[in-house]
Amino acid sequence: MTRPTVAALAAGLAVVFAASGCTAADVHQDYTDTEVLATMEAFVAESIAVLDAFPGFHSRNVSLEDCLYGVDRNESLEGHDTVHLTYEFPEASWEDPTVRETYPEILADHWEALGHEVEVDRNDAGEISHVNAVRDDGIGIYLTLLGKVLIETSLGGGAQCTEIGDGEFTIPEPTGGVLPENDRFTDNGPRDST
Question: According to the UniProt record, where is the region Disordered (predicted)?
């Protein structure tokens, strides 16, 4: 009779633990939630600074979510949350060739020149539908050109959690000319109960 190797036992235990939902939360150690939002805001501001004739943004949405993990993402890590930041271009600019064709190329080149990991997705017609850049610190920025035109930022594609910072959640002023009535904050995270 042959005995299972240590590697086979470890692989079997990994499958059992994954099936039972014992996966750990993906926690980013370098930022609190307030710090990561400020860093993401600065990344957006620096990115749009290279765009000629930038039309401004119509709206911004800052969103806090629970730090979810587990096989079904139904477990929440206390004292942690995730931060998402979304800017929407004005509807009048969605079909503008400068916004839809020129800006994606400029941003892809700019982010690549900064040393970020850049990915460009094109549709069947060869038009850019997404430009994604991820920095060394894990912050990603995503230009989406589908019906709407959006710039979104998050940590680790939105799955990475950060520690809840001390004090109130501080939201910097929006960049790109967003009017107060179009500036939204959604708190679906644990902060309102801390």
Answer: 171-194
